[in-house]
C-alpha cells in the first residue's frame, strides 16, 4: 500500500511539473510569436491572409490554444506511452510540419507565408523542448 501511495505522489508531482513547464512555455511562445508578427509587420510584411488582416494578438491566442492542445497530448502520452518523451517529440514534430501546410497554400504573399511559418517554428522551438524535458525518457 505504501508503494502505491508513493507512485501516486510521484505521478502527481510529475504531472504538476509538466503542467507548470507547459504553462510557462505557452506564455513564452505566445509572447514570442506576437513579437515575431509585430516585427514582421513593422518590417513591411503584410499580415493579410485572404484579404483579411490577422491581428498581432491573434498570433498569441492561437499559439496558446495549440500549445495547450500539445500539453494535453503530453499528459496523455505521459500516462499511456511506453516512452513518453520520444512519442511526444515525434508527434509534435510531425504536427509542426503539418501546421506549415495551410501557410503554404494560404491566399497570401510569399513574405506573409514565410512569416506565418516562422511563427509556427518559433512556437515549436519553445514549447516542444520545455515540455519534452518533463516527460520520462
UniProtKB/TrEMBL annotation:
Residues annotated as transmembrane: 21-44, 56-80, 87-105, 111-132
Keyword set, alphabetical order: Membrane, Transmembrane, Transmembrane helix
Keyword S-adenosyl-L-methionine: no
Domain of life: Bacteria
Any Pfam family the entry gives: DUF6069
InterPro entries named among the record's database cross-references: DUF6069 (IPR045713)
Stretches of the chain forming a coiled coil according to its record: none
Protein name stated in the entry: Cell envelope biogenesis protein OmpA
Biological source species: Micromonospora ureilytica
Organism classification: Bacteria, Bacillati, Actinomycetota, Actinomycetes, Micromonosporales
Amino acid at each position: 500500500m505504501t508503494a502505491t501511495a508513493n507512485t501516486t505522489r510521484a505521478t502527481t508531482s510529475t504531472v504538476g511539473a509538466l503542467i507548470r513547464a507547459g504553462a510557462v512555455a505557452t506564455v513564452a511562445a505566445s509572447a514570442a510569436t506576437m513579437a515575431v508578427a509585430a516585427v514582421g509587420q513593422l518590417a513591411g510584411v503584410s499580415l493579410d491572409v485572404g484579404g483579411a488582416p490577422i491581428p498581432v494578438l491573434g498570433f498569441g491566442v492561437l499559439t496558446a490554444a495549440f500549445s495547450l492542445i500539445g500539453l494535453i497530448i503530453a499528459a496523455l502520452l505521459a500516462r499511456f506511452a511506453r516512452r513518453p518523451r520520444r512519442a511526444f517529440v515525434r508527434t509534435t514534430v510531425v504536427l509542426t510540419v503539418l501546421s506549415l501546410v495551410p501557410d503554404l497554400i494560404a491566399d497570401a504573399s510569399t513574405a506573409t507565408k514565410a512569416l506565418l511559418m516562422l511563427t509556427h517554428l518559433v512556437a515549436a522551438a519553445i514549447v516542444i523542448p520545455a515540455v519534452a524535458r518533463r516527460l520520462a525518457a
